[in-house]
Design a protein that fits this description.
The protein is of the alpha/beta class. It has 3 domains: about 110 residues, Alpha-Beta Complex (Conserved hypothetical protein from pyrococcus furiosus pfu- 392566-001, ParB domain), CATH 3.90.1530.10; about 120 residues, no CATH class; about 80 residues, Lrp/AsnC effector binding domain/regulation of amino acid metabolism (RAM) domain (Alpha-Beta Plaits), CATH 3.30.70. The chain has 11 helices and 10 strands. A 6-stranded mixed β-sheet has the order 1-3-5-4-6-2. Strands 8-9-7-10 form a 4-stranded antiparallel β-sheet. Helix 6 packs across helix 7.
Amino acid sequence: MLKRFGNFPPPADEALEVKSFKEQQKADAAYDSRDRGIRSVALDRIVGSVGRYKDFDSQFRLKQRASSERFQWIIDAMRQGRNLGPVKLYQIKNEFYVLDGNHRISAAKALGQDEILAHIVELVPTDDSLQNILFRERAEFADRTRLPVEINVTEVSQYAHLLDQISEHQEFLEQERKKAVSIEDAALDWHKTIYRPLCSIIKKGRLGESFPERTIADLYAYITLHQWKEVRIRRYGIGIEKLIQKDMEAFRKKMGELKDCEYPEMKHGITVFILMNVQARKEIKLMEKIYELESVREIHSVHGDVDILVKVVLTRDLLSSDAEIISQFVHEKIRQLPGVNSTTTLIPGISKIKEPDVSFKNETS
C-alpha cells in the first residue's frame, strides 16, 4: 500500500479538521499558562492547531490537492536524520495543540513515527469541576518537581501523596550527602531510583490488566500508600510485595544493588538498527571502528539512500529507559566518530527471525 504524503485528498470519512485550539481553550476556560520545557510527546495526543486547524484533516494530513514543497522538504530532512528542532505545543488537559510545527508533525505521522520533541506550554483550566481540580493538582506537581516527564494519576489528592514521598526523599538525600538538596534534584532522583523501577515491576507483572481504567501511576500510588505509608502489606498475585521492601529507601537501595543474576526479568535486550550517512572516504574505517563496539552484532555497507546499516543489541535495566540507553549509545558511540554525517535509528515493533541455515555460508569480498 502506498502512503499518501498530502498529494491526494483523504476519503470523506477522514476529512474532518483537527481541533481548534481557541475553541477548546474557551470551552475549558484554560488561561493559566505554565512553561513545561522540552519533552517528547506521543503524536496521537496532538489533536489540534492554533492557527491552521482548517489545513489538516483529523489525522494531520494536508487537505489541499497539490503537494506542499515545504512538506516534502521536511519529509526528506527527517529521512536523512537532520535535526529540525522541537515543535511548539500548547497543552490543555491531556491534549496538545500546535503553535509552530504543523508540517513537521504531519511529516512525522506520515513516516510512521510515534513521538516528537516539543517545547510545551500548559494551559490549566480554571473552573472547579472535579476533573479540572485534578488537572490543577497535576500542574502544581509539575511546577514543584520540574520533572521532564508527565506523571498522570486519575484521583484527586494522589499528587499530594507523591509530593510527600519526594519531600521525604529530599530529607534522606540531604542526610546522605551532608548538604542541601533542592526539591527538583530530589524529584529527579526519586523518579529514576524509586518511581520508575517500581513502575517497571508493575508493568512486567501485568497488574494493570486487572485495572484497565487505572494508570501505572495510579497503581504505584496505591501500592506505596499501603506498603510504605500505612504499612498494610497486601498481596497482588504477582509477587510485588516480595520485591518492594519495608520502606521507600530500602527499596531504592535494593534496586541499586541488583546484579545481572538477580531478578533477571528486570533486564531486557533492545534491538536497534542504525542507518548511517557517512563521508565516502571514511566508510571502511568507520565500519572497522564501529564493528569493535561490544553491542554491535552486524554491520553492512549498503547501496541506496544510506551508506551503512548497523544492528545493535543494548541491555536495559530497571533504572534506565529504552530512550535513554539508545540515545546515549548513538550520541556517544556513533555520532561522535569523525566522518559521520547523519544517523536514523529504527526500533523493531513486531519481529520474526529464522534460524540461520548452517549448510549455507554467505561470503562477501
